[in-house]
Design brief:
- This is Ciliogenesis and planar polarity effector 2.
- One of its GO terms (biological process) is cell projection organization.
- Pfam families: Ras.
- InterPro entries: P-loop_NTPase (IPR027417), RSG1 (IPR039677), Small_GTPase (IPR001806).
- The protein has one domain: P-loop containing nucleotide triphosphate hydrolases (Rossmann fold, 3-Layer(aba) Sandwich), CATH 3.40.50.
- Helix content is about 30%, strand content about 20%.
- The longest helix is centred in the last third of the chain and has 19 residues.
- The protein is α/β, with parallel strands linked by helices.
- The strands form 2 sheets. A 6-stranded mixed β-sheet has the order 3-4-8-5-6-7, with helices on both faces. A two-stranded antiparallel sheet has the order 1-2.
- A hairpin with a 2-residue loop joins strand 1 and strand 2.
């Protein structure tokens, strides 16, 4: 697979703030808050809730299987000025469920376009387990999938258990983008635009390189 594009080199990263982008972003906003698409109240994880504009649950609980939700996100290509309106379907996979039911992981791998590997900056074990998680997908998918790593709870400095030098070493070794997400949530678009823009340009670049496709509209993303 070719080298991943630099963040912001494919799509206009601050287009949600530009005047010509308001027409498109207004379609996913209602009274200055994100519109809710798909089912609600089915136990989305904090990241899935953040990306879809939902309230993050106050009480943590283990996802019992595979839960899906939909995110709509417009982007503007930097070179051509073309506007893409993406429909991203997120699959949230419970770790214990994946261990108990052998059929879940193969189901998650079918026709998936990207995988987000999550770790917490306050949990060193989750960071150390990333190579194991990534290897489960690399063995079979080769260069077929877009892979991103997301570090959560980045703003909890007093409880941080993962040093920035460790993150840099990881990036150099695995050649994967690592995005950082804090615990504080706002109702605006700035909160989610870095991650969604990065995911969009990685998917667009991947499709263009592997299939010469220019019709990217819907992609399936698995969160682990």
């Amino acid at each position: 697979m070719s080298q991943n594009p630099a963040t912001g080199s494919v799509v206009v990263s601050d287009w949600h703030r530009c005047k010509d982008g308001k027409e498109y972003f207004n379609k996913i906003l209602h009274r200055k808050k994100r519109k809710i698409f798909g089912k609600s109240g089915v136990g989305k994880t904090a990241l899935a809730a953040r990306l879809t504009g939902r309230n993050i649950p106050n009480v943590h609980y283990e996802t019992t299987g595979v839960e899906t939700t939909v995110v709509f996100w417009p982007v503007k290509l930097r070179d051509s000025g073309r506007v893409l309106f993406l429909r991203l379907q997120l699959w949230d996979c419970g770790e214990n469920a994946l261990r108990r039911f052998d059929h879940l992981l193969p189901s998650c791998k079918e026709q998936v376009d990207a995988v987000l590997f999550l770790f917490s900056f306050t949990d060193r074990t989750s960071f150390d387990d990333l190579p194991n998680q990534i290897s489960k997908w690399t063995e079979e998918s080769a260069g077929r999938l877009v892979k991103l790593v997301v570090g959560t709870k980045f703003d909890l400095f007093m409880h941080c258990d993962v040093a920035q030098r460790d993150v840099r070493d990881f990036q150099e070794t695995w050649r994967l983008p690592v995005l950082r997400v804090g615990g504080e949530v706002s109702n605006g678009l700035d909160d989610v635009s870095p991650l969604l823009n990065c995911l969009a340009e990685q998917l667009w670049h991947h499709d263009c390189v592997t299939a010469g496709s220019v019709g990217l509209q819907q992609e399936t993303v698995t969160l682990l």
